[in-house]
Design a protein that fits this description.
With 326 residues, this protein is of the alpha/beta class. The protein is 41% helix and 17% strand. The longest helix is centred in the first third of the chain and has 22 residues. The termini are far apart. Nicotinamide-adenine-dinucleotide binds next to α1, β2, α5, β5 and β7.
Amino acid sequence: MNKPRFLVTGCAGFIGGHMLEKLLAEGYETVGVDNFSTGKPENLARAGGGFKFIEGDLCDPAVSEAAVAGVSHIIHLASVPSVPRSIANPGESMRSSVLSTVTLFAAAAKAGVRRVVQAASSAAYGDGEKLPKTEDMPPAPLSPYAASKLAQEYYGMAFSASLGLDCVSLRYFNVFGPRQDPGSEYSAVIPKFITLMLEGRRPTIFGDGSQSRDFIYVGDVAAGNLAAALHPEALRGQVLNLARGERIDLNQLVEKINAALKTGLSPVHAPPRTGDILHSVADISRIGRVIGFVPAVSFDEGLSLTIDHYRKARSVRTGEKGTNPC
Ligand SMILES: NC(=O)c1ccc[n+]([C@@H]2O[C@H](COP(=O)([O-])OP(=O)(O)OC[C@H]3O[C@@H](n4cnc5c(N)ncnc54)[C@H](O)[C@@H]3O)[C@@H](O)[C@H]2O)c1
């Protein structure tokens, strides 16, 4: 069998940039596609050359067809991944996740692609109290984003069952790591807190801070995607949690960042946000059983790598050479 040739959709995004780097480092021929709706050219630049980039929207059949040409495996990450943004604009959420997926999958089935690994989301579980989350729990989407990610899973099952495209949906929990966008209104909590606290500013927590998340380092997500892509047996539209299987609450997160930065900043508490989930932690036994994946990076290790990145980025921005900005 020929060496796999990969397509990474959403390659200019946070996870996409890390995925590109991993595939290129492992010597795979790789194509990337992105429309820069939330992605950034810097994420492509970091991966260096050595891959073909197509700028375009996957909802356009011509873009999807060009992207899948000659490809054997797809890591499908393209989406606009934000609960608040989907509440503000449900149509954008449906287009960026559902329409783009169906258009891509139709092109991929026609082109004879062997495997699609797609990014699904723990948002599919909703706010049920039962923990940890197992894949056989009934889904309960609370936001248009969650509904769109769930629809992606169903299309993965349908294309596997009736169009000969072998898909697997990995429900990522909270992914973090270097180069996650800290600047947007919709940013994930870790980059936002680190960048604020590096400037000596207090982070804002929506609610009392007891809400907890299952944070997984981005390098582990790239490794999990690759393991799923290369798995030798058919995966037939299965849904698998991709997480660490441990939870950290937001008050603990602030404490850990304070400890790493040697600061003593207390959070500001604001009212809870609509659609936000209170607790989330995964049962990761199924992904271990099915594809043999086990996360390799501890939360503290991942946090330390992430803080290093933002500290260096800040030194470059502020021109502080070789000094510790804290
Ligand atoms: N970051 C997390 O914690 C997390 C958690 C669960 C699931 N996910 C999923 O992982 C995937 C990647 O997330 P991320 O954090 O890297 O987000 P990101 O916003 O950094 O990356 C998404 C990329 O997709 C591109 N894109 C969006 N719509 C497109 C379209 N129609 N055509 C082409 N490109 C398009 C964007 O420009 C962006 O570069 C998403 O599918 C998201 O739903 C992420």
